[in-house]
Amino acid sequence: MTERTLIVIKHDGVARGLMGEIIKRFERVGLKLVAMEFLKSTRDMGDSHYPHTKKWLQKVGERTLKEYLDKDLDPVKELGTMDPIKIGQLVKGWLIDYLSAGPVLAMVWEGPNAVHVCRKLVGDTIPANAVVGSIRGDYGIDSAELANSQQRPIYNIIHASGELAEAKEEIALWFKNREVFDYNVYSGDFSGVSGKLK
Ligand code: ADP
Ligand code: MG
After folding, report:
1. Ligand 2 centroid from CA 115, angstroms
2. Could you say which DSSP state residue 42 is in?
3. Global pTM?
4. Which end of the chain is more exposed for a tag (fewer CB within 10 A), N or C?
5. Is ligand 1 within 6 A of the CB of residue 140?
6. Do 163 and 51 contact (CB within 8 A), yes or no?
7. How far is the CA of 150 from the centre of ligand 2 (A)?
8. Whether residue 160 is found in the same domain as residue 80
9. Which of 11, 52, 116, 159 is catalytic?
């Protein structure tokens, strides 16, 4: 049940001075920090971080295409194409720009169901829709509409792996030559608690 997940405070989170606030939220639920690095992501890192598959480009392209059409924006006029794969590639370029805009704080957090628990703390992809109490809901305001009108990705402060397989790949990428620690702290482990709750 113990999992590890990758969290990256993107450059907007760093620039806004939110690192301490965000770390506090992961610590206080009982997750354990096992690796951390303040670094500038290269374009190559960004390129590897976001998937290469046609399926992913198609999904991302279709999502953006739908948003443009829903808002009566002409994708050909705005983006130069209607092809979801080409739009996916364009969006991937924006995402790489965003990730390499300045230093980011990459971390590995460990604990029971860490992937799910971190996604819950992070909140919905679109800050304008993320619930109050989540990181994106409490500190973000950006929307797909605003991002699309400015031809950029949604600025949402933080990245969290979406699922366990993704977490494994992302940790291998971001912490390839870096130390990930193993040590004991309270981490959702209730085995040492005895007696009945009254
Ligand atoms: P998440 O970060 O919640 O896992 P995705 O993996 O689906 O979200 O998307 C990766 C990143 O792409 C998001 O964090 C966000 O910065 C950007 N993004 C997601 N959806 C949109 C969208 N509709 N328009 C612009 N950018 C988006
Ligand atoms: Mg994701």
Report:
1. 12
2. P
3. 0.93
4. C
5. no
6. no
7. 21
8. no
9. 159
CA of 21 to the centre of ligand 2 (A): 22
Q: Are 190 and 111 in contact (CB under 8 A)?
A: no
Asked, for residue 142, whether it belongs to a domain, the answer is: yes
Could you count the other beta carbons within 10 Å of the beta carbon of residue 10?
20
Quickly state the pLDDT bin for 65 (edges 50, 70, 90).
Answer: very high
Range of the domain at 167: 113-183+193-198
For 107, what's the count of Cα atoms within 13 Å in the CB-facing half-sphere? Answer: 24
Task: Give the dihedral sign, CA 75/76/78/83.
Answer: positive
User: Are residues 148 and 85 part of one domain?
Assistant: no
- Other beta carbons within 10 angstroms of residue 70's beta carbon come to 11
Q: What pLDDT digit, counting tens, does each position of 11-63 carry?
A: 999 999 999 999 999 999 999 999 999 999 999 999 999 998 999 999 999 99
- Are 133 and 56 contained in the same domain? no
Domain total in the chain: 2
Determine whether the shortest distance from the Cβ of 63 to ligand 1 is under 6 A.
Answer: yes
Binned at pLDDT 50, 70 and 90, residue 185 comes out as confident
Largest alpha-carbon pair distance within the chain? 68
pLDDT of residue 195: 66
**Token output for 34:** 């096992």
